Amino acid sequence: MLDKAKAINEQLIAWRRDIHMHPELSFQEQRTGRLVADTLEAMGIEAQTGVAKTGVVGFLGEGSPVIGIRADMDALPIQENHDVPYASQTPGVMHACGHDAHTAMLLGVARLLSEMPNRPAGQVRFLFQPSEEWLDSEHKSGGMRMVEEGALDGLDAVIALHVASDAPTDRIMIDSGYITASEDSFRITLTGTGGHGAYPHQGTDPTFILAQVINAIHGIRARRIDPTKAAAISIGSIHAGSASNVIPNKVELTGTMRSFDDKTREKLKVELAQALEVARALGGDFILEFTPGYASTYNDPAVAGVIRQATEDLFGAAALLPPEAGMGAEDFSYMTRKAPGAMFMLGAKYDAVNRPHHTPVFDISESALPIGTALLAEVTCRLLRQHAQK
Ligand SMILES: [Zn+2]
Ligand SMILES: [Zn+2]
Questions:
Q1: What is the pLDDT at residue 323?
Q2: Residue 77 CA: which ligand is closest?
Q3: Which of 33, 145, 212, 353 could pair with 52 as two cysteines, CB 3.0-4.6 Å apart?
Q4: Which residues surround ligand 2, an ion (CB under 5 A)?
Q5: Ligand 2 center to residue 99 CA distance, Å?
Q6: β-bridge pairing 66-72 and 123-129
Q7: How many A from CA of 221 to the centre of ligand 2?
């Protein structure tokens, strides 16, 4: 499979560069979606467009089992600052997370599998989703909408990859269990009467209340959550007041909460409201606005095991780097809650320079493209065979 992927290397690079030069923001992936649909159809693969607004689903083969492979297609509102011939041609928009490479690799998988003379029986579903990075006005991401619209119905397993710009190019990271966190944001308004700075005793001061509230919020992780469970709470902004001798009548703060399991996620929410009761005890009040974000991603141990074994067989055991779960969020989570699934990380370090995701200097090594393509295709074939036996 690796040889076959290497043989289409030029094509993989051409697709990736074409998409990189024409990045599109979340739920605006019209050109990318058209390129995907046209390319699939040219391979003889039926393509359904307009799924989850701008997503595309390709169907190869029929019957069961059904294995899904997912790629995300959206770019970010960032001005690219990397002088390469394939740099973004759209000012202020850039593929700074590698979703261009994900899309190119999934097209490569479609080509390898569609040209495979003895492909295992069953259906392969190519899930090109829009908007991984952003939620629309109804608080839904591309992955959520793909699941809602039935693109994953009947799937026996679903797999995906994500490039990692800080890991060496010939390395793979795959873990079982939680790999990314759930993510919820909050906005708190603390209120008091405010007043004259010289006469604090005549009213209630929300900045004093704030000091106690911050303690109470940071006490949640330390004192109210099981120490063996992953959780993080961070306050990201605090705004109050405008003059040195005026006690303001409100303080506004925002922050984010992260966790792996749903019980801890719910507990964080309850404890946050409880911590804010400090404001009332001190004579003030609070308003808590809560915005739920992505759920956590759970890698199914059996599917992750197939990926690990295929990596060893294709590239040798040395290709496996110890995986590191993180408290970042990923909307592949909704797919892993619909069907047993797993995502692996594909090392794709461009050069010695640090090129973090979501920054203007982000880039990946294109020599990772055939590696990711081969592994996705190989794992898909193994999953088809495995589920056919059941
Ligand atoms: Zn991203
Ligand atoms: Zn990403």
A1: 85
A2: 1
A3: 145
A4: 97
A5: 6
A6: parallel
A7: 27
- Token output for 76: 């970010």
Q: Helix (H, G, I), strand (E, B), or coil: what is residue 36?
A: helix
CB 36 within 8 A of CB 24: no
Residues 10, 15, 20, 23, Cα dihedral to 10°: 180
User: How many other CB atoms sit within 10 Å of the CB of residue 109?
Assistant: 27
Give the C-alpha distances (Å, rounded to integers) separating 108 from 11, 187, 299. Answer: 8, 43, 24
Catalytic (active site) residue 199: no
Instruction: Give the per-residue pLDDT at 390.
Output: 62
CA dihedral of 243, 245, 246, 248, whole degrees rounded to 10: 70
- For 288, the token pair is 């808590």
Interval 54-88: pLDDT, tens: 999 999 999 999 999 999 999 999 999 999 999 99
Sheet containing strand 285-292, strands side by side: 231-240, 250-259, 182-191, 285-292
Query: Which of the ligands is closest to the CA of residue 78?
Result: 1
- Name, in order, each residue with C-beta under 8 angstroms of 302's C-beta and a sequence gap of 6 or more: 340
Strands, sheet with 55-60, edge to edge from the N-terminal-most edge strand: 46-51, 55-60, 123-129, 66-72, 157-164, 341-347, 172-173
Give CA–CA dist 370/1, Å, rounded: 9
Which residue positions in the chain have pLDDT lower than 50?
none
DSSP state of 361: T
Distance 165 CA to ligand 2 centre (A): 11
Of 29, 80, 330, 366, catalytic = 366
Q: What digits encode the pLDDT tens for the residues 231-263?
A: 999 999 999 999 999 999 999 999 999 999 999
**333 CA from centroid of ligand 1 (Å):** 14
Cα(358) to centroid(ligand 1), Å: 6
Q: Is 60 helix (H, G, I), strand (E, B) or coil?
A: strand
Catalytic residue among 86, 178, 294, 298: 294
Beta bridge partners of 123: 66
Strands (E), 242-364: 246-247, 250-259, 285-292, 297-299, 341-347
- DSSP-derived letter for residue 66 is E
